[in-house]
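Q: How would the structure tokens look for this protein?
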Amino acid sequence: MKNTLFLFVSFISIACSQRTSENTINVSVKEAKELMISTPILQIVDVRTPEEWSQGVIDSTFKVNIRDADFADKVKLLDKNAPTLVYCKSGGRSVKATLAMEKFGFTNLYNLLGGYDEYSTTK
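A: Here is the predicted structure in token form.
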């Protein structure tokens, strides 16, 4: 009985840790790169600042600074039903962005764990 309970709790912990919320799945750099290859309609959203964009961006990125007053207006221009990968510098702001985007009606979000810092150092 103890083993069954332990396995159940472990499974639930793993399943829950992969999601930020109902409509957002956390993905590693490897998983994000696989998404970019396998999902031709993937929207990629960079929520960093212009200064951070100057350090590099992922190809085909829609740049919208989460700190700008018009963040919501700009994000609402995107397709709410298309798969959307969101990233920032290290992963904190992208979580906030995906939560906001869910409130705007986005249903298929991916949060890049480790952000651009992790992406730019992973081959």
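The two ends are 44 Å apart (CA to CA).

The chain has one domain: 20-121.

Upvote if useful.
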